[in-house]
């Protein structure tokens, strides 16, 4: 019996078709709970995912948008979850968030839990964003600098010094 090898692009096309069918099912479910049934209408429905490979070689799947699954049913939020990158390099942690369609005056960035978590909130005319990010290390909240350009928010944070064990050097006689 000979094996039949498939083109990887065929597999990708099948995956896209399954995602489209799932969205159609979500949409039918959302329509069942329209305003006449007490449901809230807002849109558009945004869902996406990104697959990257972590340092241990295992794939990491990150979701973004305003469509989530709760107990097997679609759950829509008015706030979108932006796509985020957290880059730890040297003595700093850099957080990059995609927030298209908002004015920089409508973006709030907050560090909580003693420098362990970052919260990003933003709103525009027709969209809202919200994301809580667990930082890879504690940061100095007084050193934080944020900039926003062309729909991309960049927050640069200095790692908190003095948290590592400094120790005392002992002279060997």
TrEMBL record:
The UniProt record lists the SHSP domain at: 74-173
Organism domain of life: Archaea
* Domain named CS: residues: 79-171
Keywords for the protein's UniProt record, in alphabetical order: Stress response
Classification of source organism: Archaea, Thermoproteota, Thermoprotei, Sulfolobales, Sulfolobaceae
- Any idea what this protein is called? Small heat shock protein
Q: Which InterPro entries does this one have?
A: A-crystallin/Hsp20_dom, CS_dom, HSP20-like_chaperone
Q: Name one Pfam family in it.
A: HSP20
Q: Which family does it belong to?
A: Belongs to the small heat shock protein (HSP20) family.
Gene3D superfamilies linked to this entry: 2.60.40.790
